[in-house]
């Protein structure tokens, strides 16, 4: 039979009219036979599993496939022919899904077995999102719905036979590129997806019991050590399956995974799992994770000392108190913070983070009013913790932090959604200011005065910072409270004492009124000046005498 060079395929089709060979680009739309065969295979993989039609379609497809490879590679045989067919089956479609991925997603076990067992397709080949077939199976509802509750689906049973922690041979078996099953599960395991996709704790636990079972000889240290590596694997977000289960408050699932778990200093899972134990807002989950890790490397890093900082940062948006006279008040406070404070680390309030922040400063920074309410109502020396400045160069107190964070948005909102987000953000910090400045008979107002008169490293009081920001509500709150308490950071009070106008002063001898002029806060200036227009001649004298260190008046600052 006359053979023709592959270079001729680039010429017009006319020379091949009399040749019985198949033409690669013979279609008007320039679709190759190879592409058409791949489309046909994917269509078969998407069809219902284990039906006669699927098997007939596979036989017809396999016949076409053999004809195609016989035409393309006349003298190919044996291992080389098998290798070419396997590479064909492992090529992705336009969505970067391979035929085995489509077979798993559509619960087509017949096609999956043909591809894996018949042609040796790589069971660990992943999608663009690094999903393997086992990960896809964990999320495919059609697979789990196809079998009675509590029984293992045939698809899952087959995949676990190929990839399983109890099957050492399947794990260590390498393909032609020297890849093993464990090495290719780089971004997430099936346990991650089970914890992520389950509707509730009960369903998640059922999936975990099917997907993961303790291997024989688990009491042996070496066996337990090797098996724990699978549970400790992290996804692309650096989270273990325990972290995801804790984040969703799946108490039973967390306990099930921890029972088959052994800590290791190599992968540093202790810190991240303790963090998500705190973030779960569930004291029982935190208790399980803490007991597992309390004697491991996390204590060498003093992670347990900063659990209260994590609670201040993440455990927000909770109702801490139903009401002042509610009989259930003891059941409503922050239980996670309480158990950390009273059981795990009794001196947690005194620990300083790398940023120079205590747990109270963290709560103020992240707008956690619930945490502030907890410390005021449940901690004995709460005034000391509330009034303590940050242990860094800025020396800000809790009010400084709230005011600064309320105006930390760099650009103005562009639409209604961003505008509402900005309002919600400001409201968080306003609530903290209201909580701290609230007057009650059992409280000493001196601590409020101390907070309002406190200065940072630039001698700015909280009202100075509020005059720069755009939160008018916070400015009103501080101005009213400071005026009622006659606050001033000057040792010798002047006759023309006016809070916000003549006092307090920063290192440039500027008052909040200067800050309003500098940052064009017209509405803020009106609140400071308009109520005092009754005696305009005296008022004019006060403003003329009001000068900063450089002898500039407010008018000079406004004109600059």
UniProtKB/TrEMBL annotation:
<protein>
    <recommendedName>
        <fullName>Ankyrin repeat protein</fullName>
    </recommendedName>
</protein>
<dbReference type="InterPro" id="IPR036770">
    <property type="entry name" value="Ankyrin_rpt-contain_sf"/>
</dbReference>
<dbReference type="Pfam" id="PF12796">
    <property type="entry name" value="Ank_2"/>
</dbReference>
<dbReference type="InterPro" id="IPR002110">
    <property type="entry name" value="Ankyrin_rpt"/>
</dbReference>
<feature type="repeat" description="ANK">
    <location>
        <begin position="458"/>
        <end position="490"/>
    </location>
</feature>
<keyword id="KW-0040">ANK repeat</keyword>
<dbReference type="Pfam" id="PF00023">
    <property type="entry name" value="Ank"/>
</dbReference>
């Amino acid at each position: 039979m006359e053979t023709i060079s592959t270079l001729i395929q680039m010429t017009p089709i006319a020379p091949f009219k009399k040749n019985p060979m198949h033409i690669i680009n013979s279609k008007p739309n320039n679709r190759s036979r190879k592409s058409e065969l791949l489309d046909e295979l994917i269509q078969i993989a998407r069809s219902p599993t284990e039906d006669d039609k699927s098997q007939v379609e596979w036989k017809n497809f396999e016949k076409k496939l053999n004809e195609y490879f016989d035409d393309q590679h006349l003298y190919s045989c044996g291992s080389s022919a098998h290798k070419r067919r396997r590479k064909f089956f492992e090529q992705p479609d336009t969505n970067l899904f391979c035929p085995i991925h489509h077979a798993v997603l559509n619960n087509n076990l017949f096609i999956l077995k043909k591809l894996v067992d018949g042609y040796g397709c790589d069971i660990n080949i992943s999608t663009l999102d690094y999903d393997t077939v086992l990960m896809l199976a964990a999320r495919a509802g059609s697979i789990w719905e196809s079998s009675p509750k509590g029984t293992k689906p045939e698809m899952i049973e087959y995949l676990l036979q190929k990839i399983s922690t109890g099957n050492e041979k399947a794990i260590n078996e390498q393909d032609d590129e020297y890849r093993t099953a464990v090495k290719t599960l780089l971004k997430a395991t099936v346990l991650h997806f089970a914890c992520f996709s389950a509707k509730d704790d009960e369903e998640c636990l059922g999936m975990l019991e099917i997907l993961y079972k303790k291997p024989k000889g688990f009491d042996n240290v070496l066996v337990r050590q090797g098996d724990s590596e699978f549970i400790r694997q992290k996804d692309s977000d650096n989270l273990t399956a325990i972290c995801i289960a804790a984040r969703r408050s799946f108490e039973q699932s967390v306990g099930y995974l921890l029972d088959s778990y052994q800590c290791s200093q190599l992968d540093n899972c202790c810190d991240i799992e303790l963090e998500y134990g705190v973030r779960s807002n569930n004291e029982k989950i935190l208790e399980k994770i803490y007991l597992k890790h309390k004697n491991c490397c996390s204590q060498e890093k003093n992670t347990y000392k900063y659990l209260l900082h994590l609670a201040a940062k993440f455990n927000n948006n909770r109702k801490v108190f139903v009401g002042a006279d509610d009989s259930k008040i003891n059941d409503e406070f922050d239980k996670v913070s309480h158990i950390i404070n009273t059981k795990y680390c009794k001196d947690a309030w005194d620990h300083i983070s790398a940023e120079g922040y205590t747990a109270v400063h963290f709560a103020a920074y992240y707008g956690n009013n619930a945490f502030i309410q907890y410390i005021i109502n449940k901690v004995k020396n709460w005034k000391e913790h509330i009034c303590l400045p940050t242990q860094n160069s800025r020396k800000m107190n809790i009010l400084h932090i709230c005011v600064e964070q309320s105006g930390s948005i760099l650009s103005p909102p562009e639409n209604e959604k961003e505008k509402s987000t900005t309002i919600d953000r400001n409201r968080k910090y306003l609530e903290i200011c209201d909580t701290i400045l609230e007057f009650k008979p059992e409280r000493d107002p001196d601590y409020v005065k101390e907070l309002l008169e406190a200065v940072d490293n630039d001698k700015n009081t909280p009202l100075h910072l509020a005059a720069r920001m755009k939160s008018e509500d916070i400015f009103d709150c501080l101005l009213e409270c400071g005026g009622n308490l006659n606050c001033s950071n000057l040792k010798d009070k002047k006759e023309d004492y006016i809070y916000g106008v003549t006092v307090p002063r920063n290192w440039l001898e500027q008052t909040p009124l200067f800050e309003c002029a500098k940052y064009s806060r017209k509405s803020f200036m009106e609140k400071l000046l308009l109520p005092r227009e009754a005696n305009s001649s005296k008022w004019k004298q006060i403003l003329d005498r009001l000068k900063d260190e450089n002898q500039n008046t407010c008018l000079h600052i406004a004109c600059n």
